[in-house]
Write a structure and sequence with these properties.
mainly alpha
Length: 141
Amino acid sequence: MSGDAAAFLLSAACGAVLLMIWDMFHGLRMVFFRGVFMNTILDAIWWICAAALPVICLWNTNFMRFRFFELFGAALGGILYHFTISQGARAVFCVVFEVFLKIFKIILKILLTPALFLYKILLVVFLHPIQHIFARMQKRK
């Protein structure tokens, strides 16, 4: 395979990977982050990836020589990814992140149960007598 063909295929893969990262961030947005602030951060991270990944691809194939067919290859890779597996990848990312969130919540609940139990015990031991004292003081006035 010639160097130009390898550069074209690598740039097509680069375009597809950029859209796959976009779909992954879409899954993160749908499951974890629904606010404007986190969406802005995820967009900034994607733009950093969109700037760095083509540079890495160019560095590895052509020693930073830019050729027009690499831009065409990246666009073609992105278009092919979008029309072939993008919807399935988004669904998979959403499901994976939802499962991860459920497992994380279960583990967090298991870890925090002793602390919650201790909090309730301390609440009964210390807070209720203090509330009772303040209630008596309010009645005396």
